[in-house]
Write a structure and sequence with these properties.
2 domains; alpha/beta; 16% strand; elongated; homodimer; Rossmann fold; 307 residues
Amino acid sequence: MKTSLPSDEWADLLGAVDGVEVVVDDLSGPQDHHRDVVVVVPPYLRPWDVGLLAGMPRLRLVQLLSAGYDGILERVPHGVLLANAAGVHDDSTAELALALVLAQLRGIPDFVRAQDRAEWMRPGILPSLADRRVLLLGYGSIGHAIARRLLPFGVELTVVASRAREGDELVAVVHGVDALPTLLPRHDVVIAIVPLTDSTRGLVDDGFLAAMPDGALFVNVARGPVAVTDALVRHGGRLRIAVDVTDPEPLPADHPLWHTPGVLVSPHVGGATTAFAPRAVAMLRDQLARVARGEEPRHVIHRPSDH
Amino acid sequence: MKTSLPSDEWADLLGAVDGVEVVVDDLSGPQDHHRDVVVVVPPYLRPWDVGLLAGMPRLRLVQLLSAGYDGILERVPHGVLLANAAGVHDDSTAELALALVLAQLRGIPDFVRAQDRAEWMRPGILPSLADRRVLLLGYGSIGHAIARRLLPFGVELTVVASRAREGDELVAVVHGVDALPTLLPRHDVVIAIVPLTDSTRGLVDDGFLAAMPDGALFVNVARGPVAVTDALVRHGGRLRIAVDVTDPEPLPADHPLWHTPGVLVSPHVGGATTAFAPRAVAMLRDQLARVARGEEPRHVIHRPSDH
C-alpha cells in the first residue's frame, strides 16, 4: 500500500509497518508516484496543494496530522476518505488552554512586564480558577481533555456542543449552542474549542462577547475565524481575552489586537510540543496497519453531503 | 471567649459565632484587651509584633491566616498553641504552581514580550507538561492539591517529603529527602512546597540545582529561603526557573535575579486570590466554634521541643 509521508523525518519516525510502502512527498507538485499512492499524509502546519489529490486515481485516504480540517474537507475528491489526527493533539492543546486561562487569571503577563522593569508588583486580590464558572464551547476529544484537567481546580463546569445531549463521566449534561444566550451571562470563563465549520465561523461576535459579564475571560484555542477579531478588539479591556489562533493568522504587525488591553496572544502553539510526535506516530502506525489489513480507517470526517 | 481579629473587614466576614466575642487588633502595640484575649488571629501578609503575645496571660491559641509559620513558631509563649491556616491556601497556591509550570514550559513569558513587539513568534517545538517527569518536593496539604491537579496532565509524578512513607490514592510511595541525589537527575520539573524549617532552609543550593538535567524547570512556591538565591542566579539559563517567593523578599530593584535568563518571578501571589476569603472564613468559624465549645483546635503546629 503506497503511502506518502511529508518528510524523511516522518518516514524515520514511522519505521516499518506491515504492508506499507513509504514515499516522501511534501505535496508541492506532481510526482510519478501519484499514479499509485493509496494513502496521503499531508504536511503539518505548512501549505500544500490540495488540488494534487485529484491526480491520484488509486487514492483511498487522506490522513491529516492536524485535528482541524477546515478548507480541506470540501476539496477532497469524491470517494476518498478524510481522517483527522483525533486524539493526537488532545494533551498538548488542552494544556495550552489551561496555561492561557491560568496565566490570564493569575496575572502572569503583568508579572513578566513588571519583571522586565525589576518591579515587585502589589497586584492585590486576583481571581483564582477555583470557584470560577467555566463554559467550555466544544466537546470533542480536545474539549473532553480540557474538562478533565479543569475539574480538579474546583471549577463549576458547563459544556456546550452543537446539539444538546446527555452528559458523561465528567458533566451531567451537554447543552446545545442555542442555550448560549442564557448561559453566557452566568460564566466567568469561556473556552472555545469547536471545529471551524459554516455554523461556528464568526460564532464569537459582538453579541456573544456583549453577553459575557464584565471582567470575564474569553479563550480561543479553536480556530481564528471562530471569533470576529474586530469584536475582540472592541471588547478587550472590559473582558480579558487569550487567543492561540487569530484571523488573520499570523497576525500582522500593525494589527490593533496586539495592543488591545487585557489581551494575551500566543502564536498558534497549541499542538507544536514534544507531546505531538510520539502520539502522531502511534496514531499513524495504527491507522496505516489497519488500512493495509483492509479494515476501515478510524477518525474519518463525515461531509455534510454524506448525510 | 475574647478573640482578636486583624481588621473590621475580617470581623464583618466572620459574622457571629456562638461563644465568641470579637475585638479588632492589628497587633501593632499594647491594648487593654490583651489582658483577657484567649484567641489571637494575627494580620495576613503584614508585619505584626509577635512580642505582644507574651503580654496576654489568658492566651490559648494563635490562629494564623497563612500556611507558613516560620519566624513565629519559635516566639509563641510556652503553653500557647499555634495553628496555621491548613487547607485555606491549597487551591490558590496549587493553581499558581500549575500556572508557573505551564507558563514556563509553554513559553508564555516569551509570547508576552513578542506581543509587546507586535511579533508573531515561531518558537518551534516546546516541551509539553504531558510526559514530563515531575518531582514534588513537599507533600503536605498544598503538595497534595498540586498532585491532584498535575496528574490529569499525564505526568510521571514523584513525591518527596521529609521522611519516606507509604503512598496514598495519588502516588504509590512518598520518598524521603535523602533520595534527592538519586531522583533529581531523572526529573524534568521540580516543584518546591515544603515548609521553611531548619532542615529546608537552603535545601535548594548549588548541589541540588547542579543535579537537575539541562533544560529542567525549578519552581518555588514554598518560601524564598528554601532556595539559595545566588545559586538560582548561577543556574538560570541552563535551567528554567519560576519563583513566587524570593530571598530577600521583596526582591530589590538591583537584584540580578530579575534579569537572569530563563527566570520568571511572580510577586508572592500564591495565596492572594478570591479563593482566600471564603476558605479562611469557613476555617475560622469552624475553629473558633470548636475552641469556644472546649474542644481541641485543629491544624496545631508541633514544636520540635514537643517531641
